[in-house]
Amino acid sequence: MAPLLEVKDLCLDYGAVRALNSVSLSVEEDEIVAVLGANGAGKTSLLKAVSGLIHPTEGSIQFRGEDLSHIQAFSLAGRGIAHVPEGRRVFSTLSVQENLMLGKYGVRSSRKKADLDSLEERVYSLFPILKDRRRQLAGTLSGGEQQMLAIGRALVSSPVLLLLDEPSLGLAPIIVQEIFSLIKKIHEEEKIAILLVEQNARKALKAASRAYILELGKIVVSGDSADLAQDPRVQAAYLGTKAC
Amino acid sequence: MNLSLSLLKRILGTPGSSGGGDELRRRRIIGIAAAVIFALFPLLPFVDNYWIDVGFYVGIYALLGLSLNIVLGEVGLFDLGHTAFYAIGAYVTAILNTRFHIPILWLLPVSAIAAGLFAWLVTAPVIHLKGDYLCIVTIGIGEIVRLSMINNPLGLTGGPNGINGIDNPHFIVPILSSRQFYYLLWAIIGLSAFLLTRLQRSRVGRAWNYIREDETAAKALGVNVRHYKLSAFVLGAALAGVAGNIYASKQMSISPESFTFMESSLLFCIVLLGGLGSIPGSVLGALAVTVFPEIFRPFAKYRLMFFGLALLLMMIFKPGGILPRLRDSGERLKKVVETKKARSSKPGAGCEDTADILKRANSAESADRSGSINTIDRADNVDTTQRSECSAHAETGGAQDKLLLRIENLGLSFGGVTAVSDMDLEVVKGRITALIGPNGAGKTTVFNIITGIYRPMSGRVLLRGEDISSRLPHQIAKAGVARTFQNIRIFPSLTCLENVLCGQHSRGKAGFAASMLRLASQRTEESRMLQKAQTCLARVGLSDSADSLASALPYGKRRYLEIARALAAEPELIVLDEPSSGLNDAETLELAALLKSLVAEGLTIFLIEHDMNLVDMVSDHVVVMQSGKKIAEGPMCDMRQNPKVIEAYLGSEED
Amino acid sequence: MSTFFEQLVNGLTVGSFYALVALGYSMVYGVMKLINFAHGDLFALGAYLGYSLLTGATGKITASMGLWGGIGFTALLVALSVALAGVLVERIAYRPVYPSGRLSLVVSALGMAIFIQNAIMAIWGSRPQAFPASVVPSLRFSFFGIPVTLLQVTILGISFALMLIIWLIVEKSNFGAAVRASALDRETAILLGIDVRKVIFFVFALGPGLGGVAGLMNGLYYRAISFNMGWNYGLKAFTATILGGIGNIPGAMLGGLILGVVESLLAGYVSGAWKDVFVFILLIAILIFRPTGLLGEKTAEKV
To answer: Are B229 and B336 in a shared domain?
Structure first.
């Protein structure tokens, strides 16, 4: 059976700069896959290409066997891909509840919409703090709460695949801990496949079953998380290789 | 009329701003032809007074177009109330002339000064506003002036009917006929265009353009943004005041109806139609805007409708305008400041160890000039050594461990989110210090504080022991700190040479008068700046691209251009924000070599970097930040072993 | 004291025109970051279309549908036609120019404004036209001692009803949240499945539609209309937009009403001739001291 998401030979250019160079990866159903790498390695570009925000120069992206290259970005949300962008990007002057409500916006069919109301409750039970603050403006939440809201907003569309871009960015270690255990919980309880882009390699490798390491737009290492956790090349991707 | 039409056609027929020599030659021919046509137009047998008057009104709009072009075209400030300054000029002339019978031509400078002063008064409090907001304020100013004229304050302005009985000017003979007015006005336009062209090719004109292209970069490289924005308004208003004076004396009566928002909009369109910052463009735009409705006079009812439509179509199909400004080549810039004497008599003092670089610079230059001018003289002009050229405060001997920059207890937060707190840091002279840390650690914020773009909430930034944390960016640049930006901020529609000249801005002083009169001191300074800029371009291997637009450079070269621009500021400390981002492996190696050689010449470098291999290759000292705080510092090798650093990058080991 | 209340009612009436027009500026700016300079002229277009409907059919509309049905029908027709014009303005004058940058957009917006203004002149003539007298019977009555006319009540009723509807749509509906989301962060809005093209269509239809109705009511109120009335009303409404914080929808309504009242009181108590000067000074003062408007929040600038 074809994987849930299959990216083949993806190349992406910003003007004269090549951000992604022949990247291939796949995500199976019910799996967490991590993409690791230093800042500027092309991780965010990869996610943006998958969700149609930027158009690749070459290569193909298939989701459930369907080629995504000619599909409008906004219609992907209704097809089961939810993207939590880097930096959370909650709508700061909208309330928490409105933010969550917008998460369902892309879902078209009314039958499914009815199911989603229960999902909203589910999100509130996953993140009880959001329920307490649902009338508050999203901009007044703390960083960790905003991250929960951004993830919750993605979950209410009942996605099959969740794209998470740097969920730990700028958060205190204890909050990072919380976010990662929530990610694992979501994966286990909701049966959602997750493509996780992270700088925090150790945490990501613990959560994911497989991982790819990007360096300057190329995948340099890939494999099982357990193996990669021991691999010196992971640290090298962040902190360089030179021996002292 | 036929003549204007055919002229219009011919000019419209020319293709866009390829910027090549052919285009320049064609423009020159057209320019001379246009000048001849404008000069002879009123003398032609079939041109009656009606059409001479049309020519006069084209002139008024041309002068107003030139004046708005300073504000809108050169500096990029949205001014939709420019008519206010024109009105001030006209009313000052009318009031002083009718009440005190002061001769019109004496009032010409008075009107200019009054309009300029008014512009200074009303724009000084709002000059910091950005884009649309400034645009709205100018609309407001325009309306306030017009409504005030209608309301006849102190019985001065004559209310809605305006002021009648304004004298004609008297210049040797009384100026009465349409033809005389036409020549008076076009003589003034010619003079203005001449002086404005000189300004364009000077430190002042370039400073305006830097602000238009990228205000933050201009600021960080030493341009006093506020001063140059205000001066553009004042100069533009003064010129509009001149137009108001001539208009009032020609009409002999003025009323508020002539100074509506519609007029301001028309002026805006003239500048955009002609091409932003283009002096011939403004004149041509005025011609188009005036002559178009005249030609369509038979369709009186529909002509302005068509005009609106034409504006729209222009913006769809030719958004750059009819005659976009061609940037000057380095050769041209040099030619205008170098007298024959200077070209042949300057002694050379080249240094042995820099001979190679000089050769490179000059061979590139001579290629540019296609061998038309004596190359050897030019080479001799480079009279200082390469090393001191590109690092002004270079000290060959001296203490290696001297502290250049010291940050103490720095803190800054944005809306409750702490970006930097309790940050201490030292940068030692003559070394490369790297600031690393995971995304979002606050590194760029530290850079923005050092360069004065942000003001810290607590702590100090000491440069050579002096607190600079409350200084403005251009002052810090002048004090010897130059920077580059994470997401490359070059001036895209200027040439590479002009980009680099920006660095030299803070090392020059020539102002408006010196630039317009092209005083000897200004010429010397300009030629020194040009030389310096060319040397710095050569330093990063971009001599061949000196005359091409910065936007035409490939990505990797833009990084180098930014570095050259920073070097041209003759800094003591150069601050680089992720210089390797977007570069491939080979380019990164090149960059490392360049940074090392700069330090060898005495420069101090402070950089943010994510590419640890580059940090490895170049840095003497590494500071690691996480969540706004310094967590470790030392040599890169140690940092790689440091558990705190590893944790910052890779996350904690235990759950 | 009764002068005060008279001025107040008059101010609210004029302010409701400003508010309706300001809504259009604010919505378009919020989503597109663009000042729609043609918006004032769309307001004038609304006035002229209303004039033609009310006079052209020689009162047939009000005759066959009754007074209130007739006015409602006229308002609906005007709103729909001006909304269509608004959408066309976006398609013709803005969409092709977006890639060329903000300055070009200003010029094409001005070009469009000149076009509409002169098209109105070409169709209806350059002389001011007069709405038929007393479309709404000129009844005067006293409301808690404050003298008001039936026309004022009608205008205020329609305006407040419209503003309430807009407020409900924008602040309370799903689609309204989508509009606000698109204004805040277009990319994330797309990620959530919001079709931003629909949002753009919406703001360019609804804003001018409301402006058109305001034009019609303005004609009913003052009777005299002229082809270039759009500039002045546009500028005033734009001031109201800034007053409330550009891009802020409740702010635009509030700004319009405040501006109308302030203007009326200035005219009544200080000087009628200088009121507009004060208004523009107020505009500049707001931009200096509180550029995000009365209801706006401070935003940090990123380098």
So the answer is: no
pLDDT tens figures, C162-198: 999 999 999 888 899 999 999 999 999 999 999 999 9
Q: Where are the beta strands (DSSP E) in chain C?
A: 129-130, 140-143, 146-149, 224-225
Model confidence at A139: pLDDT above 70: yes
The whole-number pLDDT of residue C7 equals 87
Cβ of residue B87 closer than 8 Å to a chain C Cβ: no
- The verdict on B66 and B197 lying in the same domain is yes
> What are the tokens at A147?
């991250």
CB C240 within 8 A of CB C259: yes
Name the one residue in this structure whose structure tokens are 């291939």: A24
Which of B585, B610, B627 is the closest to A40 by Cβ?
A: B610
- Amino acid at residue number B241: G
Share of chain A above pLDDT 70, in %: 95
Cβ of C107 within 8 Å of Cβ of B269? The answer is yes
- State residue B387's pLDDT score: 40
**What does the block give as tokens for A113?**
């919409």
Q: Is residue B590 part of a domain?
A: yes
Q: Does the beta carbon of B457 lie under 8 angstroms from any beta carbon of chain C? A: no
> What is the C-alpha separation between B349 and B361, in angstroms, rounded?
16
The predicted model gives B192-213 an average pLDDT of: 95
Tell whether the model's pLDDT for residue B380 goes beyond 80. no
CA distance B433 to chain A (A): 16
Residue B74 CA neighbour count, 13 Å, CB half: 29
Domain boundaries, chain A: 5-239
Q: Say if residue B79 is in the same domain as residue B159.
A: yes
A150 pLDDT higher than 50: yes
Q: Do A91 and C180 touch (CB under 8 A)?
A: yes
When divided into structural domains, chain B yields a total of 3
Strand partners, C140: C149
**Structure token digits, residue B231:** 């001066």
| pLDDT band, very low/low/confident/very high, at C14 (cuts 50, 70, 90) | very high
pLDDT digits (tens, 9 = 90+) for B441-486: 889 999 999 999 999 999 999 999 999 999 999 999 999 999 999 8
CATH superfamily of A5-239: P-loop containing nucleotide triphosphate hydrolases (3.40.50.300)
Cα separations in angstroms, B234 against B241, B357, B648: 10, 43, 53
Q: Cβ of C190 and A73 within 8 Å?
A: yes
List residues of chain A with CB under 8 Å from any CB of chain B.
15-17, 38-40, 143, 166, 168-170, 172-173, 176-177, 199-204, 206, 216, 234-235, 238-242, 244
- Highest mean pLDDT among A183-192, B106-115, B609-618, C94-103 belongs to B106-115
Contact A73 C188 (CB under 8 A): no
ipTM of predicted assembly, 2 dp: 0.91
Residue B352 has a pLDDT of 34
Q: Is the pLDDT of residue B620 over 90?
A: yes
Query: Closest Cα of chain B to A68: distance in Å?
Result: 27
Q: What is the mean pLDDT of residues B196-218?
A: 95
Contacts of C among chains (3+ CB pairs under 8 A):
A, B
B528 token code pair: 């020194």
Q: Which of residues 62-121 of C touch B (CB under 8 A)?
A: 92-93, 96-97, 100-108, 110-119, 121
Residue A16 has pLDDT above 70, yes or no: yes
Do C107 and B147 make contact, defined as CB atoms within 8 angstroms? no
Nearest CB neighbour to B652, from listed A143, A173, A235:
A173
**CA separation for the pair B643, C161 (Å, rounded):** 65
Q: Chain centroid to CA B117: how far? A: 22
Give C18 to chain B, closest Cα distance, Å: 17
Residue type, B251: Q
> Looking at residue B653, what is its pLDDT?
62
Name chain B's partners: 3 or more CB pairs within 8 A: A, C
Q: What is the largest CA-CA distance in chain B?
A: 96
